[in-house]
Queue: 3 jobs
Job 1
Amino acid sequence: MSALSVAARCLLGVVFLVSALSKRDFPTFSLSLRRMRMVPPAWVTPVAAMVVAAEALTVALLAIPGTALGFALAIVLLGSFTAAIVAVLSRGITEPCPCFGPKAAPLGWEHLGRNVFLLAVAVLGGFAGSGAASTGALVVAAAAGLIVGALITRLDDLVALFRTA
């Protein structure tokens, strides 16, 4: 397995795992989706449930070495989320981002940038191939992916920190 693939799997795995687990407050997540007006009201709960399930499935598929299915599902999800963010921003809706649990910060351009970055990681990881890498390189790649993934899940906090500084 290539170091790039390992880094991408770890980064995306952390992001999707934290995202899925942070939606434990399912009613709040569903309400946020309702306020974004992305789907008809009757579809909000089923769509919210599918999002959580797809995020969890992405984590499981990314954990399987030698398959690109996790990257493919990540690309589909991130593409959908990115399109939704563009739609919400273009309509001027100021609903907080439910990406990693309930937040006070409304969706913004930083969320769009984050998703474009994650989409690029998923594409690169999916095409990274299975080139051989040393154990040390794989360990460093995994650690880097985990660290960057953790930072991405705290994006709202990091943006708020630098906005007030």
Job 2
Amino acid sequence: MVGTHILNLRENDVRSACRFQGAGERGIDFFYVDSQKKEIIIIQAEATSDLNPNSSFGASIIRKLRSALSTLNNPSTIKEGDPLIDAVQDYTEYHQHQKFSVRLIALISGRPSEGRGSMVAEANAFKNDLIRNYPNHTLKIVDSGELFIVKL
């Protein structure tokens, strides 16, 4: 739904962008290179089984996005046959060589936890790290309150 209704992608592009879900995805549920906008979109998503919009989500999703970025920037950690090899190659080509921007999105079916050690605190720390270490990278949390009203 996010890919087709919010990002306005074709169904085939969405299927391709979602190919990393499951074991071995290292924090990447959705990886898409938008050549027209010159950007890479990386989404990690978490949801409760009942999709309760009042559910609170902790910092783990932000840690997964950190892991994804670490993997993408360290191609030596990827072995032959690893499902992420295509993403690492695309990231290297489009971000590092062609200077595409990178949008990291934490997509949750509830709301982010707040306070010490929370999703919000971890996201703020990650945003600071992005500013210092990863030019042209941004982080956004899209929660249930924004999911249907915000255009990514």
Job 3
Amino acid sequence: MSTRRARPLLGTLFEISVANDRSSDSFEAAFGAAERVHRLMSAHDPESDVSKINRAKPGDRVAVDPWTYQVLASACGFARSTGGLFDPCVAPLLQDAAFLPRFAEPCADGWGDYRHLELLGHCTVRARCPLQITLDGIAKGFAVDKATEALRESGAEAGVVNAGGDLRAFGPTPEPVYVRDPAAPGRFFFVGQLCEGALATSAPYFSRTEHEGRQASHIFHPKKGSALLREASASVVARDCMTADALAKAVLLDARRMEPVLARHHARAIVLGPETECA
């Protein structure tokens, strides 16, 4: 017997299921953690930490929340380990395709990447050149982890936190896991059971669109600047959802290159569809 509740957060339906627990305190603590991540890291909120960084001029010090600083540090770490296939500074490409709002004028000389973002300590960051960040590729996983942490701290012994398919299961009962067929997203494949772990999926099937005469999706190759349009998906199983969330993007862009990175994180990937390629 489980109790299930959901709220719209982080651009998706944030769903929590707790076994043998009807206490509203558990759910409120978990949703509160997710809502905090949403307020701090949404690129659509002009008052978020992400937007403050994007409005800042190069050299300006920007104070951010400890959670934002933690995610930025992790994002830069994943950017280094993936050779830039995961890059929190991919926001200009998403802005050009109208997936994200602009809070700064376009940069004629080009934008910087993760190597130009300095983490100065004491929850302070600085850009060495014009750049725009987005944490959409990692914040949802972090929110799932923080909600799971809040559930456990409030006494929940088992449950599942699911943010639009990025999920984490805790407790002794294995959770059956399904992923969408990238060629027919309404169809699901059973890929196994998850126990004390997380899974996140990256795919373009719900975001393919046309903008100013060009096909686009919300997944861009940071180095090539092109959008992924193939009917493919990558799911990563890891110990925590933030790791799974970040690595799923890199695996989708270059699965073979990411094999040693997955091994270092004790993670594994499930790739569906043809060899991925950017338009």
